[in-house]
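Risk register update: the risk that structure generation would not scale has been downgraded. Supporting records follow, first protein first.
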Amino acid sequence: MKAILTVIGRDHVGIVAKVATKLAELNINIIDVSQTLMHGNFTMIMMVTWDEKTSFESVKSSLTDLGQETDLDIHIQRQEIFDAIQKL
């Protein structure tokens, strides 16, 4: 499955490491990433992929929990939905 992951929040040490570690624990591969800082705010967008054996809902739940633990807005959506929205 391919998905688009966004991470937004106040910049602090370890954001990339925490997100990448959680993705590795879930056996999710990062295939593209872009990040930037804007006036103290961290933003990152990733394209990720994983085996269909792992449900989208379980990945979403794990990332939502990580967002709450780290005070970040972490959202994930299936690539086909992301692509369809971009066409509108």
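Supporting record for the second protein:
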Amino acid sequence: MSILRLGHDDRGSTLPLILGFFLVALLAVAGSVAAGDAFVHQRSLQDVCDGAAAAAAASAADLARGSALAGGAELRFAGAQAAVAAYLARDGDRAHVQAVTGLSQDATVLTVRCEQTSGIVFGAMFGLGRGVHQSARSSARAPLS
């Protein structure tokens, strides 16, 4: 019957294992926080894009009611672009959002494509020190009569 005994050279061998598990756990927590932060920024961008599309649609409807010109689509489009710019300028947090407005061929559906680069927490740990490029798209039907 042999009894296993730890030799003098085996002492302290669990310390590297514990440190290794701690680093893995730290990376998992940092990754979760970074992913959550990127998700929150994406949801915020989508909210801004939805609001810009609604503002553009309302503006297009207002201009269409006040315009008796046959070629009113250009006027509605210009008004929609101005409404999106005004909506983004209202709040300083929206200043970094870039928006492109589009108008359907029948001039009833407005599409807004928004883009931003968001800095995320612990982004540098994962090679994203310059931030994450995010985009969102929203459309709204102009309430034209």
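Strands lie at 98-103, 109-118, 132-141. On this basis the risk owner (M.S.) recommends closing the item.
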